[in-house]
Design a protein that fits this description.
The complex is a heterodimer.
Chain A: E1 4-15, E2 18-29, E3 33-37, H1 44-51, E4 59-64, E5 67-68, H2 74-80, E6 82-84, H3 97-103, H4 113-117, H5 120-141, H6 143-146, H7 158-170, E7 176-180, H8 188-204, E8 209-213, H9 217-223, E9 226-231, E10 234-239, H10 241-246, H11 248-255
Parallel strand pairs in A: 3-8, 3-9, 6-7, 7-8
Antiparallel strand pairs in A: 1-2, 1-4, 4-5, 9-10
Helix pairs in contact in A: 3-7, 5-7, 7-8
Chain B: H1 2-7, H2 16-34, H3 38-57, H4 60-70, H5 72-89, H6 94-119, H7 127-141, H8 149-173, H9 176-196, E1 206-207, E2 212-213, E3 216-217, E4 223-224, E5 227-228, H10 232-254, H11 257-267, H12 269-274, H13 279-305, E6 307-308, H14 315-328, H15 333-349, H16 356-371
Antiparallel strand pairs in B: 1-6, 2-3, 4-5
The chains are: A alpha/beta, B mainly alpha.
Chain lengths: 258, 392
């Protein structure tokens, strides 16, 4: 019997008069890959932003692993083991690949002035250890990138940036990964490659759960266990890809009503 | 960790380009500081422009950079030696030494602003106020003979830091332009407070006691080999030590997890927060430590010029400090050194242009922002342990 990892209960978000998310309830089991789909503006990214504590909720509650995370800040949510990527890649372009990936994992490293400025020998050990871990992680996605760990990210093409963004999310060993349109700006082949890499990484670790927001239905069909469909902030369908693809309401939401 | 070194072999890079640069800059600095005739100054400026242009065409920049970063400790040591050589070459001349020391103190101030502006992205338009807080601390504490002046300098930093606590709340609650406006308001407030406060001397200002170390009064010119040196020599040497210390600390800060947090907060606050970085903590740390450095520089500055007034710490002085960071390159410590020299020396040396010299300076800043937005010596990508590429 599978265990609940995440539970949305009647989550609502209003921006002024606009209801971006209307009493949205859903759940995610441990180890599951859930597709969150729906037309533009249906509240998918808003769900991610509420979950990760970027926006405060208007109503409802979110539980992660039996803890109420409804009113946690972005930092506290991260500490429970939830990480994400962004729809428009939000990397630090002037920084190196290594730096960008380490942004995802520095919170567990020493933060004091003394340990950072004075205890340089210990710092060096942390640096060498993390460099190796980050490099190995990057190497699972692209051997070419692993050789360029100190190059700036700004010089890389989109697919490489996506890979780095995913490495940044994975480096801390999270329990839940939120992918916000990972295929944006990439070709079919690149997207497929990226998904295979993610599944590889997932297969090595134990029980990483994933929620993926995606417009590319091929990706959704291939990797998700279950899908939730949103339209105008409301859940209109739920089930396996095959089920929701035949759903009349889903077809109407995407294609319009005759 | 041998497997890491293989993919990015550290090519041995010669000391020559870096060493030649240090030598050239030292000689040039000496020549500029001692130039008195207008034609000499203008000749030197034309020379600098010409060398800069030829160097760019010949692609010397990357060579110097490579040589520098693969031998960083040696090069930094060499730069200190070059600076000491210039100081001793000028040892009997008051005015050039005063100029040089002022440059060094502005350089220290720019290092403080760099932590805030260059690394963390918080513009501080009250730099002169925190600098002034240090100077006024030195003036007040100088009245108590039992307080060791070295402690007074430290106290200058602490007072600047305590004052910045007043701003912490509005600064972390606002972002971008709004935070900048908060600092502008504080700068104006600080100067007005000094002007109306009789205890702190009002508009007339205060006398500041000189710097003293045990058995060493900085206001007496030291006698070396039977020659009496300028008393500014003391300050120049002390400022050199302070520059070296603070430069090392700021470099280490940049190349630490804290430096990475600061960059992450500057470039994308939301993403940083989503990865567990405390945006508030990082900003507060940057703001306080930057102002601490400004206060220290201000305390020594006050002791050196021995008389301070509110008019020395105005909004336009703050702007000057910000323009040092912009001109040199955001987040580039060496850029700050070059820009501090330009900002301090050019207006003094171009007296021939009278008030137009500030016009020239403003045009220079605009040109740099237009054509070299990363500054004269742009910041290099972070390498935690330079000279050992590939993480080894």
């Amino acid at each position: 019997m599978s265990e609940r990892l995440l539970e949305f209960q009647a989550v609502t978000k209003r921006f002024g008069g606009v209801t971006a998310l209307d009493s949205f309830s859903m759940h995610l089991d441990k180890g599951e890959i859930l597709g969150l789909i729906g037309p533009n503006g249906s509240g998918k990214t808003t769900s991610f932003n509420l979950l990760t504590g970027i926006y405060p909720k208007t109503g409802g509650s979110i539980h992660f692993d039996d803890r109420d995370i409804s009113s946690m800040s972005a930092r506290e949510v991260y500490e429970t083991g939830i990480v994400r990527t962004f729809q428009r890649s939000r990397l630090c372009l002037p920084l190196s690949i290594y730096d960008n990936i380490m942004v995802g994992d520095t919170s567990r490293l020493p933060k004091g002035l003394w340990s950072n400025l004075v205890r340089r020998r210990a710092f060096r050990r942390q640096y060498e250890e993390t460099f190796k871990v980050a490099r190995d992680l990057v190497a699972t996605f692209s051997g070419n990138l692993a050789d360029r760990m100190l190059d700036p990210v700004g010089a890389l093409p989109m697919i490489e940036r996506r890979r780095i963004e995913i490495c940044r999310a994975l480096i801390s060993g999270p329990r839940l990964l939120l992918l916000d349109e990972p295929s944006a700006g990439m070709t079919h082949d690149e997207t497929n490659q990226l998904m295979s890499d993610i599944l590889d990484v997932r297969a090595r670790g134990e029980g990483l759960s994933i929620i993926i927001v995606e417009h590319e239905m091929g990706v959704i069909e291939r990797i998700t266990d279950r899908c939730v469909v949103l339209s105008y902030g409301k859940k209109i369908a739920e089930g396996t890809y095959a089920e929701i693809a035949c759903d009349k309401e889903v077809q109407n939401a995407y294609l319009g009503v005759d | 960790m041998s497997d890491i070194a293989i993919d990015a072999p550290a090519r041995p890079k010669g000391l020559l380009p870096g060493a030649a640069t240090i030598l050239a800059v030292s000689v040039y600095g000496w020549a500029l500081l001692t130039a008195e005739e207008d034609w000499q100054v203008i000749g030197l400026l034309v020379l600098a422009a010409a060398v800069g242009l030829v160097g760019k065409l010949a692609g010397l920049g990357p060579k110097v950079l490579a040589s520098w970063s693969s031998n960083e400790a040696t090069m930094n040591g060499g730069a200190v030696l070059g600076l000491l050589a210039v100081i001793f070459a000028l040892s009997t001349q008051h005015f050039p030494l005063l100029m040089l020391t002022t440059t060094l103190l502005y350089f220290i101030a720019s290092l403080g602003l760099n932590i805030q502006f260059g690394y963390t992205g918080m513009v501080n338009f009250a730099g002169a106020a925190f600098f002034g807080a240090g100077a006024y601390t030195a003036a007040v504490l100088g009245g108590y003979a039992w307080i060791p002046p070295l402690l007074t300098i430290l106290a200058g930093g602490v007072v600047a830091m305590v004052l910045s606590l007043l701003l912490v709340y509005p600064i972390v609650r606002t972002t971008g332009h709004y935070a900048a406006v908060v600092t502008i308001a504080f700068g104006v407030l600080f100067k007005t407070f000094l002007e109306v406060n009789e205890i702190l001397g009002g508009p007339q200002g205060l006398m500041v006691e000189s710097m003293k170390l045990p058995g060493w009064d900085f206001n007496n010119g030291p006698v070396l080999f039977g020659v009496e040196m300028s008393f500014y020599l003391n300050y120049a040497l002390f400022a050199t030590a302070l520059v070296a210390l603070i430069f090392c600390l700021v470099r280490r800060l940049e190349r630490s997890w804290l430096g990475l947090h600061m960059d992450a907060v500057r470039l994308d606050e939301t993403a940083a927060a989503c990865f567990g970085i405390s945006v508030h903590r990082t900003k507060i740390l940057a703001f306080l430590s930057g102002n601490f450095i400004l206060g220290i520089a201000g305390a020594l500055y006050g002791m050196m010029i021995s008389f301070i007034a509110p008019a020395s710490f105005t909004f336009s002085d703050s702007l000057l400090m910000v323009s040092i960071v912009l001109l040199g390159g955001m987040g580039s410590p060496w850029g700050g050194a070059l820009a501090a020299a330009i900002v301090v020396l050019l207006p003094e040396k171009l007296q021939v242009l009278q008030e137009y010299r500030f016009l020239l300076f403003s045009v220079l800043v605009m040109l740099v922002l237009l054509f070299r937005p990363d500054g004269l010596l742009p910041r290099q990508i972070r390498n935690y342990f330079p000279g050992r590429e590939g993480g080894k």
